[in-house]
């Protein structure tokens, strides 16, 4: 969590007026932790982590709005330039794939298995697919575009683990 603070994903806002309670809100993609002036983040890591995890879990439902997410990612990383013709969840996706883009039609399909991953992971998948609207193959040029989302490599690790977990729970 301290690393997330260092990376700017969590901002701590101290207030002299706030006496005891802390609260968390979300501003775009940053969690804002409002605390009393003398509150020690270091001494409360466990309860803060639980609080943020609860909030992140609640965030999953909003990720079902793929159209809004694609729009947000396009604005943030591509100046609004890359927009799919359609983007939706599918349940018949090939098991080894998380998502696919038909470059000729601009249709993006996202595996429903990703409905349970954290939002930042889904963001990287959407950014990857948006990049395919411009470049088909996984060339250096493509990765330069897709890697505009700063957590692409982290997400790849997450998804490798997520996939292994799925296989494990299926017993195969
Ligand atoms: Zn790809």
Write the layout of secondary structure elements.
Blueprint: H1 2-6, E1 10-15, E2 23-27, E3 30-36, H2 45-59, H3 66-78, E4 86-90, E5 99-102, E6 107-111, H4 119-132, H5 140-146, H6 152-170
Parallel strand pairs: 1-3, 4-6
Antiparallel strand pairs: 2-3, 5-6
Helix pairs in contact: 3-4, 4-5, 4-6
The chain binds zinc ion (ZN).
Give the overall shape.
elongated
Average of per-residue pLDDT values: 85
- Unreliable segments of 5+ consecutive residues: none
CATH topology of the largest domain: Zincin-like
β content, as a range?
A: 15-25%
Q: What's the helical proportion of residues?
A: 40-55%
Give the class from helix and strand content and strand pairing.
Answer: alpha/beta
The biggest sheet amounts to: 3 strands, mixed
Strand order of the largest sheet: 1-3-2
The bound ligands are:
zinc ion
Instruction: Supply Rg.
Output: 18 Å
CATH homologous superfamily (4th level) name of the largest domain: Metalloproteases ("zincins"), catalytic domain
Oligomeric form of this entry?
single chain
Extended strand count: 6
CATH architecture of the largest domain: 2-Layer Sandwich
| Distance between the amino and carboxyl termini | 34 Å
Q: How many structural units, i.e. domains?
A: 2
């Amino acid at each position: 969590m301290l690393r997330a603070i260092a990376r700017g994903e969590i901002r701590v806002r101290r207030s002299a007026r706030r006496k005891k309670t802390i609260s968390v809100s979300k501003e775009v993609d940053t969690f804002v932790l409002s605390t009393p002036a003398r509150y020690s983040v270091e001494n409360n890591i466990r309860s803060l982590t639980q609080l943020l995890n609860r909030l992140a879990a609640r965030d999953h439902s909003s990720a079902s709005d793929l159209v809004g997410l694609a729009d947000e990612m396009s604005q943030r990383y591509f100046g609004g330039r890359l927009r799919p013709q359609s983007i939706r969840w599918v349940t018949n996706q090939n098991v080894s794939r998380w998502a696919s883009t038909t470059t000729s039609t601009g249709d993006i399909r996202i595996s429903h298995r990703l409905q349970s991953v954290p939002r930042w992971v889904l963001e990287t998948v959407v950014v990857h697919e948006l990049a395919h609207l411009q470049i088909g193959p996984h060339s250096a040029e493509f990765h330069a575009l897709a890697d505009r989302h700063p957590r692409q490599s982290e997400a790849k690790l997450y998804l490798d683990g997520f996939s292994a977990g799925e296989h494990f729970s299926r017993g195969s």
